Structure formats: C-alpha cells, structure tokens
Amino acid sequence: MESERLRMRPFSQEDFDFYKELVQNELVMQYINGGVSLDETEARLWFDQQFERYGDERQTGFLLIEKKEDEEPIGFAGLILQEVDGVEELEVGYWLKPKHWKVGYGREAAKRLMREAFERGNDRLISIIHPENHSSQKVARANGLGWEKETVFKGIPVVVYSCRLTRLFRG
User: Within a domain: residue 13?
Assistant: First the structure.
C-alpha cells in the first residue's frame, strides 16, 4: 500500500527490533498503554498479534511504514478492530519515531488507510486518542474525523474521533 511519500507493508519477523524500538520509546508511548513502555515479552506479544490480524480481512493489522525515497522505516500504522464501550469498531492508528513527527507522515498514512477502509466496504471509522495528545487530535480533524465522545478504553481515559467514510470519499 502506498501514498505519495510512504510505503506500508506487513511486518516480517526481521522487523521485530524496529517494532521493539518504538514500543520501548518513552516519547512514543507517552500517550499509549497508560504511558508505559513495553518490556521484551510484551513487545513480542504485541508484535506477534499483528500476524493474527493479517488473517482477518476486516482489518490490516499494523503495517510497517517506510519512506519511499530511501526505504527508511519510520513507524507503523494500520486498521485495527477494537472493542469500545461494548461495540466492535474499526480504528485507524499510527505510531511514528519522534524524529518523524510534525512533517505530515501520520496524516498521510492515516488518510491512505482511511481510503483502504472505504475501498474494503467500511463506512464508519474511529480513532482512539489520549485526551492530552493534541497532535493526534489535530491529525484526526485534518483527515475529516470529528470528536465523538470521551470514554475509558482498556482502563485508560480516551477521546474517540469518528467519521463516515462515504462522506469523505464519495465519488
């Protein structure tokens, strides 16, 4: 899957060290998992879960994001099935190395994944965001998602942004 500057592909086992680097980075994790970085065992469990997600056509699982120009891995993004307030929802999410923040990669990856969700026949899409993560809220709004509600997700207070993909991608 590609966008203007990015290529997204499923992880391979060789990508584990990069994945672990992100999920153990305190800046990356400050708004994820209650601000707690993952240890080696947790990182492996989260990583291996992606391979299970790849077998479910309703989601993409997390995909490695590489810059097209030099194939540098910069993060991961994907369409993930989540249960929010007892309802199964399709979420678009992304995680980037801090040196690649604020240059539009998150917005670009999320927008491409939103198009993918639409092409797969989905209409409703959400983004689950920590209330203090104003940058991710800005990305969600820029991509056409609107604030829906505050709730608790996996024991952590969050805000949920949502959209109707048919409204964004009609015609």
Answer: yes
